[in-house]
């Protein structure tokens, strides 16, 4: 579908065939990103990986992140982080004393904690910054994602940009001031002068922000959705639990390579239209993790009906880390607790209540 958004020609890709054309056949032509206001303010004039124009700078930064933060060896070295059992302990205490907890918030906090440990190499609790009168990482990153995702008139009709009618530029300028200066790898890269490009603090901040945004919200959101779907599908929950019992090696810290069943559960995520296309998927709207059993559906971007991590040159460099985190947290949660909907509600009643709620209130519950 071709659209003209203000002055910007836009093509919406909503079939596997079209996705293949754009992400494989003509990947080189479309490998850049538009220069939006978010790229300007949040990504320090496109110095981060996600917003950078396709070219030598992007290639260098991507190589650096892949080697220094996201390689298999590095992911393995984060093993101790993944053994973090605070989530399980807190849930255990709450369930024993029948206290209500917000699992979504807890998963988001865990993801924030893991990302900060990985990127800054330091234990950073979100509340620490609140105490200093600043917003915590969680709030800053979520604000940043919201701002970057909002349709901004200035991106489509550049002349109106200076008026900032939606107030987005003002908010983005305010939110760009996270300054942490202990990121060893990036700093030594900066100091080594080995780079083809001058790297200064703003390059470092932009890349760090990318790594935080890339790792915090994505994995947490996926974990929450998997858990929500499992809650509504007790059969899938049961089978997932059984597999996790058989496969989890608690003594060596739940190595990710042993969790094939969770892999199938996380496979549910997809780009919205392609993932729901009945000509591509049987019972497209249904959560059926078993649909992947016995197929060789690829989630690395080679199968254009299934693109949770994108594809081609700009495909997600953090896929491996994201998958490891999701599998581990979901496996722990499913393995350690028996989950069911509140007050013995059946999944069918829950679905009807949700539909009714959307019809009456005009919003999704
Ligand atoms: C469940 C977890 C994750 C999902 C579903 C996900 C998904 C995606 C998707 C769909 C893209 C866009 C690909 C495209 O434009 O074609 C992307 C890009 C990106 N992701 Fe992820 N991601 C996840 C985890 C991570 C993690 C853990 C990191 C880093 C620590 C990360 C860093 C990035 C970066 C930097 C980009 C931009 C790459 C570029 O433009 O060259 N992601 N991700």
From TrEMBL:
GO terms for cellular component: membrane. GO terms for biological process: secondary metabolite biosynthetic process. Signal peptide: none annotated. It comes from the Eukaryota. Its cofactor is heme. PANTHER family: CYTOCHROME P450, CYTOCHROME P450 93A3-LIKE. Belongs to the cytochrome P450 family. This is Cytochrome P450. It comes from Kingdonia uniflora. The lineage of its organism: Eukaryota, Viridiplantae, Streptophyta, Embryophyta, Tracheophyta.
